[in-house]
């Protein structure tokens, strides 16, 4: 089996519960929901993401001798270690869920895991970790994409610039993937481009310009190294003087059969500078040369620049994207909803569970626009498209382009009032009578 085992990527209490379940013969079938209870402030939707990463981890959830020896040192029983020794979690559980790229709403199960109680329980940490990161970044990236679409003309390109500020290597890779899935054109991170087949973009740093005796020398040197469609950074010293020098370099490139593709701005009043840069490029007859900006941007900055009509052809988005600025954590949970075919719940204040296995039906109007969802008990008939489908951990990976197409189609059909960056409307998610009955039954069983 390829890949590093992930069996220890879980919290200690998961093993403690598994051992106790085994000791008490509690091996009945259980179902767990992975969902969120509420949206962060000023968010009208989330995006299903990180699902493929979660499935890949589940497929590698097994134990080698060193891992079992470590668990033995933690005091776990021989019976548990024997059971784990032959365990491959993906063979023990069935997974259903909402595929990546779809918009999702509170209490809709992004994933549902069904299997023997001890083993379905063990999946909690590894699944939450993967889906949480993907959802945080994808939902932020979708807002950036929406902001870029607010203008009247061609939609500016978005590029992920965030690897250096991501919280670790895995986070940087997953962020690049999630951003591409939700409308970004590509990434600056070469490993993400290789791993996921994402287009890769890059220009130059200010340090490159500083390393030369003059800005002119630096721009000429870089253009000579990359004469076909290169992008030059023009704001190391004086931006408008820098673009004049870039225009002069462009003339030299044209004489040699090359071309200047774009200029990048990374500081200052980006709107005003972009207008000044555009004027100079056009005056030199360089109407096809693009203006690309970066520097502390997210959906708010992009929306402001787009709505003021700044002549910007692309945005690099970094720190605020990969850290999910504005909603860095979500109320994502993994809760037991069925045990031995009986719906179960808990009555903790503010942390109620919606019991029972479920299906989500998405309804559209005659024009294909989303009008609302219905949560039903599994097996109930529903009106619309069923969103939850079986997911095979062994077949995870390689589905990024399909997820991107799914997002772009569905996001276009989500009315703007739900996508608004401030005070979005509340999307309608109804609950069926069957689900209400399951909740009443579970509350009675819990002593409520």
Q: What report would you give on this structure?
A:
- This protein has helices at residues 12-23, 51-59, 65-73, 78-85, 89-92, 117-122, 124-148, 169-181, 190-196, 206-210, 215-225, 239-255, 270-283, 299-307, 319-322, 400-413, 416-419, 433-445; strands spanning 29-36, 46-47, 94-97, 103-104, 111-116, 157-160, 186-187, 228-233, 259-265, 290-294, 314-317, 332-339, 342-343, 358-364, 370-377, 385-386, 389-391, 429-431.
- With 448 residues, the chain is α/β, with parallel strands linked by helices.
- The protein folds into two domains: 12-137 and 328-356 and 387-445, nicotinate phosphoribosyltransferase (Alpha-Beta Barrel); 147-322, Aldolase class I (TIM Barrel).
- A six-stranded antiparallel β-sheet has the order 13-12-1-5-3-17. Strands 7-6-11-10-9-8 form a six-stranded parallel β-sheet.
- Helix 8 (169-181) links the parallel strand 6 (157-160) and strand 7 (186-187).
- Helix 2 (51-59) packs antiparallel against helix 7 (124-148).
- It is elongated, with a radius of gyration of 26 Å.
- It starts with 11 loop residues before the first helix and ends with a helix.
């Amino acid at each position: 089996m390829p890949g590093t085992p992930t069996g220890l990527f879980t919290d200690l209490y998961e093993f403690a519960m598994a051992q106790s379940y085994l000791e008490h013969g509690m091996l009945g079938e259980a179902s767990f929901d992975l969902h969120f209870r509420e949206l962060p402030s000023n968010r009208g939707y989330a995006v299903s993401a990180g699902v493929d990463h979660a499935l890949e981890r589940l497929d590698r959830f097994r134990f080698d001798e060193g891992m079992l020896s470590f668990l033995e040192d933690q005091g776990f029983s021989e019976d548990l270690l024997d059971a784990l020794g032959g365990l491959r979690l993906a063979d023990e559980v069935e997974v259903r869920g909402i595929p990546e790229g779809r918009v999702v709403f509170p209490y809709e199960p992004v994933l549902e895991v069904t299997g023997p109680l001890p083993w379905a329980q063990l999946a909690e940490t590894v699944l939450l970790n993967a889906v949480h990161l993907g959802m945080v970044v994808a939902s932020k990236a979708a807002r950036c994409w929406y902001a870029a679409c607010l203008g009247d003309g061609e939609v500016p390109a978005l590029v992920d610039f965030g690897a250096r500020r991501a919280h670790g290597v895995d986070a940087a890779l997953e962020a690049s993937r999630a951003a591409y899935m939700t409308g970004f054109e590509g990434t600056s991170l070469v490993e993400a481009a290789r791993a996921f087949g994402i287009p890769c973009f890059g220009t130059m740093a200010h340090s490159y310009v500083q390393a030369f005796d003059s800005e002119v020398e630096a721009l000429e040197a870089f253009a000579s190294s990359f004469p076909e469609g290169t992008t030059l950074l023009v704001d190391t010293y004086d931006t408008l003087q820098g673009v004049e020098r870039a225009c002069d370099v462009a003339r030299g490139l044209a004489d040699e059969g090359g071309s200047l593709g774009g200029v990048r701005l990374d500081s200052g009043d980006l709107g005003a500078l972009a207008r000044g840069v555009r004027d100079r490029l056009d005056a030199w007859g360089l109407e096809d040369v693009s203006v690309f900006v970066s520097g502390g941007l997210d959906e708010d900055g992009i929306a402001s620049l787009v709505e003021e009509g700044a002549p910007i052809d692309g945005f690099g988005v970094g720190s605020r994207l990969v850290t999910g600025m504005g909603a860095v954590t979500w109320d994502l949970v993994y809760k037991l909803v069925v045990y031995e075919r009986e719906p179960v719940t808990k009555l903790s204040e503010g942390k109620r569970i919606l019991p029972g296995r479920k299906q989500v039906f998405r309804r559209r109007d005659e024009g294909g626009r989303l009008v609302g969802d219905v949560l039903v008990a599994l097996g109930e008939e529903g009106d619309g498209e069923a969103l939850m489908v079986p997911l095979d951990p062994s077949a995870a990976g390689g589905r990024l382009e399909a997820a991107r197409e799914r997002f772009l189609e569905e996001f276009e059909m989500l009315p703007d009032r739900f996508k608004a960056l401030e005070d979005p409307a509340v999307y309608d998610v109804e609950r069926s009578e069957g689900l209400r009955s399951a909740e009443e039954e579970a509350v009675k069983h819990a002593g409520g």
